[in-house]
Automatic annotation (TrEMBL):
PANTHER family reported in the protein's UniProt record: PROLINE DEHYDROGENASE, PROLINE OXIDASE
Any one of the GO CC terms: mitochondrion
Its EC number(s): 1.5.5.2
Cofactors required: FAD
Protein's UniProt name: Proline dehydrogenase
Keywords, alphabetical: FAD, Flavoprotein, Oxidoreductase, Proline metabolism
GO biological process: L-proline catabolic process to L-glutamate
Classification via Gene3D superfamilies: 3.20.20.220
Residue span, Proline dehydrogenase domain: 140-474
GO MF annotations, alphabetized: FAD binding; proline dehydrogenase activity
Natural source organism: Lactuca saligna (Willowleaf lettuce)
UniProt entry tagged with the keyword Cytoplasm: no
Length: 511
């Protein structure tokens, strides 16, 4: 949001928005609308039909939370106790607010105060939500998860580079991350997460997004640097960021774009050498078009005939999510290209709504959380149907039990097995553990999203996620309840065993 505020003059933009809204669409725009409407028919029919099938009551229970002994069998008591305590504190919103205030206050410039704060965070929230400080520590976490039947998705905590030098450093870290997987058990890491904001300066991503939006609205507008890609926009995608024709890229900007593409290529190629796939994260709407462009460019370049190696991300809280995933999948099929998607709900709800409201335009975010849930389930059902028939891949990143249950039932109906390599359930490290272990016990492939990096580097990122997802933290009630239940069971079992041993010794002495 801060980046958007710096780049946009709200008063001028608001005035321009009203003028554009009052204007009639061009003939070209009307023709695009007709094409998009044809695609939208596919979106609205296919996902709704599939969702109805998913929701059928067939008595097939995916989750078994009754047996906490089996559920948490792979979690040591010390780790379980630490997790329960951390989640209970994190569920208190004032604690999150206080942490954010402290981290952003001038007190952090006082060396001793900062040392105390970072030390406290290191042994509480950091140890719970972060996989490690470097690839060595993270590798230990991966091995522990792998031994419990869970894979890892490695996410080096760096984002929003400002220049080529910082982008080069980030690329090297991502390459080292991919290389580190070669020393880990085969298949223990399924994906390396990549943030394009770490490989391409943010200013350039915004410039590219403006140009791509303008090209979509004006077919006569040409982008000489643009290479083959897949559909990025639908008719309902937000275009209010770009209300005037942007200047073309200058020579330096084109050179920077080429450097960014080379960085992404190097990271991809190093990951593929280690037999690890790439998943590219989504960002806010101001720069998402450029991220989608680079993602689909890489997908066309690297995805194999049967197995996608580069996955894009669809944010289901966007009103255009269903249309875009359908359009992109159809276009990929026409190219005989296996498409891979990670479906998430999204993490920019407040900032996107605030910007749209300030400009007097309709928010691109669904009006209710129920609509977001429904969109997520439709997108998931659509992709499950697609990958059951042809090559492709799907990561369902969710902490929502209902969405996971619906998708798991549909995957069983389609016989999308654990060994197919087409489906992965994923959740954040330290979140939704009960759901993860229940899906694992039910025979589904599961992964944990593993952010890692030095505490002072990664905590601001995690605190921003905490601010954007306070509801998610407070919804950890099931994990907390089941963890406490298992801790009580273990405590009771411990004292029962001690009592049995005491009686046995007493009987032995009496005899």
């Amino acid at each position: 949001m801060a980046m958007i505020k710096k780049d946009v003059s709200f008063k001028l933009l608001r005035s321009a928005v009203h003028r554009v809204n009052a204007a009639s669409p061009s003939r070209c725009h009307q023709a695009q609308r007709a094409t998009t409407n044809a695609t939208t028919t596919i979106v609205s029919q296919a996902p709704q039909h599939l969702t109805a099938a998913v929701a059928g009551k067939d008595g097939d229970n995916i989750f078994n939370f009754d047996d906490t002994k089996t559920l948490f069998a792979s979690v040591p008591t010390g780790k379980l106790l630490h997790s329960a305590a951390t989640l209970n504190v994190a569920a208190v919103e004032p604690m999150v607010d206080l942490s954010l205030w402290v981290m952003n206050s001038k007190l952090m410039y006082v060396p001793l105060f900062k040392k105390v704060v970072m030390g406290t965070i290191k042994y509480t929230a950091y140890d719970h939500f972060v996989a490690g400080g470097d690839t060595v520590e993270t590798g230990q976490t991966v091995r522990r998860l792998w031994n419990s039947g869970v894979r890892g998705m490695l996410d080096y905590g760096v984002e929003h580079a400002v220049d080529n030098e910082s982008c080069d450093k980030a690329a090297q870290h991502l390459i080292k991350t991919a290389e580190s997987t070669q020393s880990l058990p085969p298949s223990s890491v399924g994906f390396v997460a990549v943030k394009v904001t770490a490989l391409c300066p943010v200013y350039l991503l915004k410039r590219l997004s403006d140009l791509l939006r303008w090209e979509h609205k004006n077919s006569s507008f040409k982008l000489p640097w643009k290479q083959q890609t897949l559909p990025i926009f639908s008719e309902t995608s937000p275009f209010y960021h770009t209300l005037q024709q942007p200047a073309p890229l200058n020579g330096e900007e084109e050179d920077d774009l080429e450097l960014a593409q080379k960085r992404l290529m190097k990271v991809c190629e190093k990951a593929f050498e280690a037999n690890v796939r790439i998943v590219i994260d989504a960002e806010d709407t101001a720069i998402q078009p450029a991220i989608d462009y680079l993602t689909y460019w890489a997908a066309i370049k690297y995805n194999e005939s049967q197995r996608p190696m580069v996955y894009g991300t669809i944010q289901a809280f966007m009103k255009d999510a269903g249309e875009r995933i359908t359009m992109t999948k159809i276009a990929a099929d026409k190219m005989n290209l296996p498409a891979g998607f990670k479906i998430v709900r999204g993490a920019y709800m407040s900032s996107e709504r605030e910007l749209a409201n300030s400009l007097g335009v309709e928010s691109p975010i669904h009006d209710t959380i129920e609509n977001t849930h429904a969109c997520y389930n439709r997108c998931a059902a659509f992709m499950l149907d697609q990958i059951s028939k042809r090559p492709g891949g799907l990561i369902l990143a969710t902490h929502n039990l209902n969405s996971a249950s619906l998708a798991a039932k549909k995957a069983r109906e389609y016989a999308i097995g654990k060994d197919s390599g087409k489906l992965e359930f994923a959740s954040l490290y330290g979140m939704a553990d009960a759901m993860t272990f229940a899906l694992r016990n039910a025979g589904f492939p599961v992964s944990k999203y593993l952010p890692f990096g030095p505490v002072d580097q990664i905590m601001p990122y995690l605190l921003r996620r905490a601010e954007e997802n306070k509801g998610m933290l407070s919804s950890s009630a099931l994990d907390r309840k089941l963890m406490m239940k298992e801790l009580k069971r273990r405590m009771k079992a411990y004292f029962t065993e001690k009592e049995t041993q005491h009686k046995a010794r007493a009987n032995s002495m009496a005899n």
